[in-house]
Structures are given as structure tokens and as C-alpha cells.
Amino acid sequence: MENLSDILTFLPAVITAMAGLIVLLMSVYRTGINAIFGVTVAALTGGLAIAISDMFGPVGTSFYDMIAYGGVAAFGTFLVMAGTLFCVLISKDYLEDIGLHLGEVYAMILFATTGMLGLAVSNNLIMLFIGLETMSICLYVLAGLLKEEKTGAESALKYFLLGAFSTGFLLYGIALIYGATGSTSYPEIAAAADT
After folding, report:
1. What is the mean pLDDT of the chain?
2. Where is 61: in which H helix or E strand?
């Protein structure tokens, strides 16, 4: 039952990931875009409600101290969920105007949100890296969706190259921190820095 309690502490991200899979399947089976939009908004609203309740709940860590929950982590989750919900709501008309009101767009937004939530609750450099890469890969796809236009392909390529270089620098920095402190956990790194 410990695994279930770990999952419950990361529930907003689990909801967005599952909703992303559902939206992707709905778009494969040619479900109406309004139904896909509704599932996206419902998942983000549910995750936002859970994030609000988590702000007033207990504070701790889970998944072998890889993520934190409650307190600042819950506030970060709230900001990500509220920002994503706001962006999805205001971008519907814009996506219709440019011809990109597709189910895949909403799936990528939900998967990118899952990565952002991983960043918001990370308590370990490895979790930070996983969250950052999950978010980045989805944003590469979103940047390149306007493939008919030259600017869409160009922006996706430039973002991918920038992301690849910055990922290398981040991994190098994580390796240096691990070599200096013997840990990738934030509290242990902070304790090592104090000595």
C-alpha cells in the first residue's frame, strides 16, 4: 500500500498523464475535437482542485525521497495547473484560426504539463532531469506543428539544438555536484554545502 500512497501524493501529474493518453487515443479514433477539449479541461480542473487541497495538507516526500508534496511543492503544482488551464482555455480560438485545433496538440500540452509538475515537485536532481526532458520533448513537437510554414520547422530545429546543448551542460553539472557531494538529493546537497 506504500506505492498507492506515493501515487496519491503525485496525483495531479498522474491525472494529466492519464488524460494525455486518453486524449491521444481519442484523436487516433477520430473523436470530436470538442470532446477532446472537454477531457483536457476536465483533467486540468481536477488536477487544479487536488493541488489546491494539497496546499493545506501534510508536507513530506515520497517515491524514495525523489519528490516532495505539500507546502511549496503544492503551490508550484497549483501554479502549473492554473497556468496550463488558462492557456488551454484562451488558445482554443487561436488554434482554430490557424488550423491546429487537433487532439495531438492537447495531448502534448498534457504531457508537457506532467513534465512541468515533475519539475515543480522534484526533490532530487534526477527527478528534475526527467521532468525537464518530458516537458522539453513535448514542446519540441508543439514548436514544429506548423510544418507547412518555414518558421515552424525552423523554430523546432533551433529549439531542439538549444535543448540538446543545454541538456549536456545540465548533465555535466549534475555529475559534478554528485562527484562533490556523493548525492543527487537536494537536502543532502544542501547539507554537504553547509559543511
Report:
1. 91
2. strand 60-62
